[in-house]
Amino acid sequence: MTTTVAFLGLGGMGSPMAANLVASGFGVRAWNRSRQRAEALAGATVAATPREAALGAEFLLTMLADDAAVEGVTGGPEGALAGLPPGAIHIGLSTISLAATRRLVAAHAAHGSVFVAGPVFGRPDAAAARQLWIVPGGPAEAIERSAPIFRALGQGTFPMPSAEQAALAKLTGNFLIGAVVESLGEALALGEKGGVDPERLLALFTGTLFNAPVYRGYGARIARTEFIPPGFRLPLALKDLTLVLEASAETGAPMPLAELVRDHIREALRRGRDGYDFAGFATVIREAAGLPERRELVSPSRRD
């Protein structure tokens, strides 16, 4: 018997994820604010509202931009909870606040359904290739029931005891990405000011102590000052760093580096770079060092 999944939010991440669910044999009911995206999802049934998508579904998946978007499609007369049957599981794939996570857990408990936080690490190319890392948090039985969903979407999971802990784990991870961009931006700017080619310097880092995807991927963008097209846009990065600092204030754990990253993202946006990738706030670091926003690229043969 085919498992029915309601999928809400078909942006750059949601579309390939929903397509992978279709390819894995799930019955997908798709909803998106722009209906054309849902209509473009081959093999899925297009729903007119979140409520219609969730009617009789065993799973509800949301991949949306922020707290307001997730809660907006969940509650209300045409929201997903109005159609979701008791016992169903809502897997929230988005990066949202701790407060919103608590509200969703409570709303589902009152409804008789279950909220499992399932934020993901990975960009759109990883989503398409089923290479996401997923951090599910919630009741162990619900996470176990959701395992086929997770296998269809990613390469592995790191379960947490509660939805709130999963949400916090995702925020700490996104902070670390911002910290990597900050440190790489500073290191490569220092090297370039001293006459060291940024790509050569990055090759040293990634070929020795820092051979990790986040250093290779974001480092390449910073070294080449190539921030378009974005895999994760700066406005969303600002949203996440704001949530990190909200969690910092709530828990009483000071995060001065997170404040610096947030301020550099704000400055990049003030300079009109809202279409840049997360790594694009490194332009603010470059310019503070007296380097241009973009650098002249030299072919490898000429560099050698």
Which labels suit this protein?
304 residues, alpha/beta, Rossmann fold, N-(1-d-carboxylethyl)-l-norvaline Dehydrogenase, domain 2, 2 domains, six-stranded parallel beta sheet, three-stranded mixed beta sheet, 52% helix, elongated, disordered C terminus
Q: What gyration radius follows from the Cα positions, in whole Å?
A: 21 Å
Q: How large a portion of the residues is in β-strands, by DSSP E? A: 5-15%
CATH class category name of the largest domain: Alpha Beta
Helix content: 40-55%
Q: pLDDT average, as an integer?
A: 96
Characterize the main sheet. Answer: 6 strands, parallel
Q: Give the SSE order as H and E letters.
A: EHEHEHEHEHEEHEHHEHHHHHHH
Main sheet strand line-up: 3-2-1-4-5-6
CATH-wise, what's the superfamily of the largest domain? NAD(P)-binding Rossmann-like Domain
Number of DSSP strand runs: 9
Unreliable segments (pLDDT under 50, ≥5 consecutive)?
Answer: 298-304
Total individual domains: 2
The 3D shape can be described as elongated
- Based on the structure, what is the oligomeric state of the protein chains? single chain
